[in-house]
Design goal:
By secondary structure, the protein is an alpha/beta fold. The protein has 13 helices and 21 strands. Helix content is 25%, strand content 23%.
């Protein structure tokens, strides 16, 4: 039944057998291959889709400490995350993120052990003092990274609280009790004003805040003391958005509001298991809804969700993203952001979130997730969760020793896999349709997406070959052969490495178990 749905809607899935039955690929570019072995990749330039706004990651929670590490080390980490420059060999120095997410803490760090949050690294300072004054010297490590992002040319800054300040919560803590929302009923205006003051305070430090996301994964209970957090019902989110909108207006701020960071993508288009917390597209953007906020002046014409627990198996991942896109398309001019992801859970046995893995396996997995989020749900933005992780989990682009004052840092393949997209697909690029051997359906073993630069001078193609054989491809645009300007590979032994290529040819080999970005001139 699922397969019939996929083929009837012509979304991006076919079995490996249907695409590869007549092909036998060699192990490298020097093996025997005949013309029929080469897949024809054709970009259709008059079939345009979403315009990409940004790729991002968040500073939670390690930046509060790493931002105070020795200059040489924190600068090296910032370069890996933010730089769009290349070294003397043409290799990217970093992944060129275009959005940085700043966690506006609730004050659990000041409470210390009394906060009830067991892990000190998951507590967060707050600019707001208990007496109602502000201390702009707080969150200094995070401010350092936000300034480093700006210095490297990162054009977008977003602030997000996981919880309101503890002085505004019902529990007096930065996490909830019994799955009930943890913002006092009379503190909505104060919460909006607090966020406006944080935006102004960061602005005085030279940090323009482009977006504020006032709630995070409101479907979850956040009652176990694992980190700052609180659930909210949709009507409460609507009330918060109105309070933030009013505060932004009264303070003459241009910051846009991002709603609603759903814990899973299906909460945007269906009620699922969270009555009163699902169907968020309809709740917030249908004028007939009692929770309608689509007319707020500062509300971004965007709705956001997280890809957790919806990425395996592949067929289900595509089906859910197709359903999400259908819902988004039903609202005029509404855009979708995939605003948080790392590898959690068991993913149907495909890959497990437990344990660090610096190798290519998790990198290939997230590359497929990015591909589906961009090409099926038409996300105009894609954001990773914690950029810097001290944990034994698949949650970090960069890993560090869990040391507050100094330590070593380690690059993961997941960093560079994201870079295959973020470094080359810049804000303003637009996704184009792609055919493989005249078919738009794609095999999960070989995924291809294409993006035109804003000036239409170049096309970026990203290939994800998770199969065990090399694949030779020929590149075309609208049926005309295209030569390659540059090529970058992430594999088990390469980290977004620039390849030396013959620019006069249009055939390239996509190595087995690799992510490859090819840039062609239009």
């Amino acid at each position: 039944m699922i397969m019939n749905l996929f083929f009837s809607k012509a979304f991006l899935f076919v079995s490996c057998a249907s695409l590869y039955a007549c092909h036998s690929y060699g192990q490298n570019k020097h093996t025997d291959t005949s013309p029929e072995d080469t897949l024809k990749i054709n970009v259709i330039t008059n079939e345009t889709h979403q315009v990409i706004e940004h790729f991002g990651a968040s500073d939670a929670w390690s930046a509060q400490f790493v931002g105070l590490w020795p200059e040489k080390k924190k600068n090296a980490i910032a370069e890996l995350l933010f730089s769009s420059e290349a070294d003397a060999h043409g290799n990217p120095k970093g992944i060129g993120l275009s959005m940085w997410r700043f966690n506006a803490g609730a004050g659990s760090a000041e409470q210390g052990e009394q906060s009830g949050i067991r892990d000190e690294w998951r507590r967060a300072e707050s600019f707001l003092n208990a007496d109602g004054t502000y201390d702009w010297n707080k969150q200094a490590g995070q401010v350092w990274f936000a300034k480093a992002a700006r210095a490297h040319g990162v054009g977008n800054l977003l602030i997000f609280p996981n919880s309101p300040p503890v002085s505004m919560t019902k529990t007096g803590k930065a996490y909830a009790k019994d799955g009930q929302s943890n913002l006092k009923e009379d503190k909505y205006p104060a919460f909006g004003e607090y966020l406006a003051q944080v935006i102004k305070g960061l602005g005085e430090k030279g940090l323009k805040v482009d977006y504020v996301s006032p709630v995070n994964e409101p479907q979850w209970d956040w009652s176990d003391g694992g980190q700052e957090g609180t659930p909210f019902w949709n009507n409460e989110i609507a009330g918060i958005a109105k309070a933030v909108d009013q505060a932004l207006e009264e303070n003459n701020l241009t910051t846009k509001i991002d709603i609603a960071e759903a814990g899973k993508i299906n909460y945007l288009y269906e009620q699922a298991d969270k009555e009163g917390r699902g169907e968020q597209v309809t709740n917030f953007f249908n004028p007939s809804s009692s929770n309608y906020i689509g007319d707020l002046k500062h509300l971004s014409r965007t709705i956001s969700a997280h890809s957790y627990f919806t990425t395996s198996p592949y067929e289900s991942a595509v089906e859910q993203r197709a359903s999400l896109n259908a819902m988004i398309q039903s609202v005029p001019d509404l855009k979708y952001w995939m605003s948080e992801y790392c590898i959690l859970g068991g993913n149907g046995g495909e890959i497990n979130g437990n344990g660090r893995d610096m190798g290519i396996e998790p990198a290939l997995y997230i590359a497929k997730v990015i591909h589906n989020d961009l090409t099926v749900s038409n996300a105009s933005a894609w954001h990773w969760w914690i950029a810097i992780s001290p944990y034994n989990y698949k949650d970090g682009l960069i890993y560090i020793d869990k040391n507050k004052e100094d330590g070593e840092f380690y690059e993961s393949k997941m960093l560079w896999a994201l870079g295959n997209y973020s470094r080359f697909i810049r804000p303003g690029y637009q996704r184009l349709s792609v055919e493989i051997n005249s078919q738009k359906q794609q095999s999960p073993d070989l995924l291809v997406s294409a993006y035109s630069s804003a000036d239409q001078h170049e096309t970026v193609l990203v290939f994800v070959n998770s199969g065990i054989k090399d694949v030779e491809v020929g590149l075309f645009e609208d049926g005309d052969s295209k030569s390659i300007k540059s090529l970058y590979i992430t594999s088990k032994d390469k980290d977004l490495e620039a390849e030396v290529i013959d620019v006069s040819v249009n055939n390239i080999v996509i190595p087995a178990r690799s992510i490859v970005t090819a840039v062609t001139e239009r």
